Write the structure tokens for this entry.
Amino acid sequence: MAILKDAQVQDVKRLLELFPIANLRENWPEIKGSKDELCQAVAEKRDVAAISKFVDENLTCCRQHVYIFSHGGDVKELPAELPGGEQVVNQAGVHGLYAIRTQYNVVLKSPLEEATLEFLWPVRIELRPQHLIIRFVVLEKNLSSYFDRPYYLGGKTVDEDTVLLELLKPGALAATDLHKGVKKLWDDGFMDSPKAKYKKAISIASEAMDEEKGIKEYNPDLYEILQEAPLFNTLFQIPENKGCTVSVFSVDPSKGILRFPRYSEKKGDTDFVIAEILGNN
Amino acid sequence: MLLPRFLEIISKIFPTNPLAGHEEALSKLNPDKIYVENVRSALDVSYQSAVRLCETAVRQGLFERGVEVHCPDGVVGATAADEAHLPPTVHCWQQDGEEFEEVDLPTDTLRKTTFYRLNDKSASVLYR
């Protein structure tokens, strides 16, 4: 856990700011104030064990990108480390929490000046009998609160591709095609899509519904076509009455990628969506 | 279906029926969302003629006018009877690469389009 132990207070604060305020308050009810004040106070305490535990237990509520790979039983253990990062939690070899040190390159305007901003980037890897699931918390791209003037945002020193490339090196992983599970849940009414991109015989088409109406409910003819078509990145909404606080997510089924653009309120709800897709796949 | 009623009613309004020969194209319009371009194309008339026809239909109580506000990608974010009744901000999804990002944008900065819908009540009253 050296990466957390040796981190600056500001790095830990930025790490905590990736989490929903409700989860932070629930975990540290004795600390009052704004999210900024709460994160600062927790970071200053430097209780690495408590922070690691919080990050591990609450990561599923964050905005995140999830990559699902099939390994056919060939992967037996979690990686000991990731590029630029180290394992900070290992839950019985079933899942590991990693913290990666990455840096945004930023060009400040008026006057031009180069700057950097470091983040401790939480990543979780789950090892299942047939699948390896990698979750990247989405880092804040709006850095205006960190700089006092306009800026251009450059790349990150370590990004998702860097990590995935390293994990894919041994050659045991293949992206899990999620079409079957996604289409089953769509057909069952668990979710509906207001934005879909799909392959036609000799072209790619996309449909974006007015006022976020669902394709299945409002455009049944197209829905029938989509049930047969290869889908590309497609947005889904889950109605409130399904009891799942993941209200929206996107999926690129043939790449095995899910993206959760909002915080979810209940721990485990992103797990639920992933499990439902894989369970019906 | 409302549209056959619309065809008959509009035929009574205009001395020379501008719809003659275009009934099939018109009957394919969505009575809840009629754009000027739909009418122009169906009747093969000028844009101004199509606007005149739609506005006449509004004055006659056959059409209701509505306005919709578009997100930057063209999708309709909200609709209302007029601009004053549109919400001050509209929820939109934008794509940054493969990422869907949601934003709330001020309505007054976004494109608006006038549309028409068949007035169910007036159409049925006039039809009797």
